[in-house]
Amino acid sequence: MLGSVDVLGSIDSSINGAGVVGWLPEDFNPTTFIQELVHNIDDIVVNNKCDSQNYKNNNGEREKIVLGRDMHTVSLEITEPDPDDEVTGEREAYMASVLSKYKKTLTEKTNFHLGYPYNLDFDYDALCQLQHFSINNLGDPFIESNYGVHSRQFEVGVLDWFARLWELEKNHYWGYITNCGTEGNLHGILLGREVLPDGILYASQESHYSVFKAARMYRMDCVKVNTLPSGQIDCHDFKAKLLSNKDKPAIVNVNIGTTVKGAVDDLDLVIKKLEEAGFSHDRFYIHCDGALFGLMLPFVKRAPKVSFKKAIGSVSVSGHKFVGCPMPCGVLITRLEHVNVLSRNVEYLASRDATIMGSRNGHAPLFLWYSLNRKGYRGFRKEVQKCLRNAHYLKDRLVEAGIGAMLNDLSSTVVFERPHDEDFVRKWQLACQGNIAHVVVMPSVTISKLDDFLDELVQNRALWFREGKYQPRCIASDVGINNCLCALHS
């Protein structure tokens, strides 16, 4: 299959050779076991702080991926209570101390968070009264289950709001609140596979990793499409690859904001290229991955529309990103006709099975409903404008300091030269890829926080470059020559 990797088969044969799973030997080393199964990873170095992984990029150069520390070194052991713990209260005091220190750590980490698209500015104290209930929306959100402790009425209210936002009539849509953005992509691509069983999945090389995970999970042929320096899908390459496989239907992932560069694919041009390549509307399915910008784009002036009035099949967004839910969640909206292909009635639930997960977090709809009601369209528009304004401020100050940087139109993701000090990267929780890093400017990111970050970055760069050990990174191949300020291109 195109772009597919058969991992499960090799695991099956390694573990279940005789069809029996026995106890693991005492000297079993899980690291060795995993390295034997994963053939493309080499030179893994393990130390107390982190793992580093070397690989070759598209230019044949060796790069190093720095992985986070092994959490077994800091894990909190669970031990059996002593018989007299209820009398002495020592265990309760110990756990209270651990949680207090953890809260202090969370507060500190929140103050230095810049690299990931999470809005940390929220107040849900009004919902604390509901945390004592086990709320589970198992099954289809539109069909009530026999389990009565649910929040479907809130969930459907949220889904109606998003369906209106993306211009799909109430009696023509279906959707549900997912556990994360990845689940939205998995469901959207699964719908495409069910509607077009022999379809090929097309996705730009800068698509979220969950898109390629879906291809592996569903054993789909997958074609990676080149991208422009901005991170947008290269529609000329897209059309060429469509023509090479025009005998099979196309399932297309369109990015409404790429993970690293925040690039928005041109949905109208993608549809045009499909039509030019001879694909009628019944021979292609488009899933729009709008994890972050799917909710921001509708509130940007002169931005292209993501709308079901166009030839798309599904849209997904994350709820814990721009909205600011305190737990991972998301929203998936599709056409009702598509989900009917996938769904099955389940007597045990007295409902319908049409979702990826069975049990679903019933608290997430409450947080989404509460936030959407408090902010409304006007509140979101105000927050989007603030984010875009602050992103331009950050980008301009980086360039003024001689640091190569890029900011896409319609985006609040500022891409710049990767800092040379991994401690600095970890402190500010920057997301990095190769020679670039990025800051995602969210409603919780203030000008004051950006100033603190910039001042520290400029001071550190002076130290890094003082003795000539380091030079400004060349990011021309990542973001284009015009955005690079290295010695060669400045």
Output the keywords.
15 helices; 16 strands; 3 domains; disordered N terminus; 36% helix; PyrdxlP-dep_Trfase_major; EC 4.1.1.22; 7-stranded mixed beta sheet; Aspartate Aminotransferase, domain 1; lyase; 490 residues; alpha/beta; pyridoxal phosphate; Aspartate Aminotransferase, domain 2
Describe the protein in words.
With 490 residues, this protein is an alpha/beta fold. The protein has 3 domains: 8-86, no CATH class; 133-375, Type I PLP-dependent aspartate aminotransferase-like (Major domain) (Aspartate Aminotransferase, domain 2); 378-483, Aspartate Aminotransferase, domain 1 (Alpha-Beta Complex), CATH 3.90.1150.10. It has 15 helices and 16 strands. Strands 4-10-9-8-7-5-6 form a 7-stranded mixed sheet, sandwiched between helices. Helix 5 (152-165) crosses helix 12 and helix 6 (181-195) crosses helix 11. The longest helix has 37 residues, at 364-400. This is COMPASS (Complex proteins associated with Set1p) component. Its EC number is 4.1.1.22. Its cofactor is pyridoxal 5'-phosphate.
Topology:
Elements (H helix, E strand, L loop, with lengths): L7 H8 L14 H8 L4 E5 L4 E6 L5 E5 L18 H4 L1 H22 L40 H14 L7 E6 L2 H15 L4 E5 L4 H9 L4 E4 L9 H10 L5 E6 L11 H10 L7 E6 L3 H4 L17 E5 L11 E6 H7 L1 E3 L4 E3 L10 H37 L4 E3 L5 E5 L4 H6 L3 E3 L2 E5 L6 H20 L9 H4 L11
Parallel strand pairs: 5-6, 5-7, 7-8, 8-9
Antiparallel strand pairs: 1-2, 2-3, 4-10, 9-10, 11-12, 13-14, 14-16, 15-16
Helix pairs in contact: 5-12, 6-7, 6-11, 8-9, 12-14
Protein name: COMPASS (Complex proteins associated with Set1p) component
Family: Belongs to the group II decarboxylase family.
Keywords: Decarboxylase, Lyase, Pyridoxal phosphate
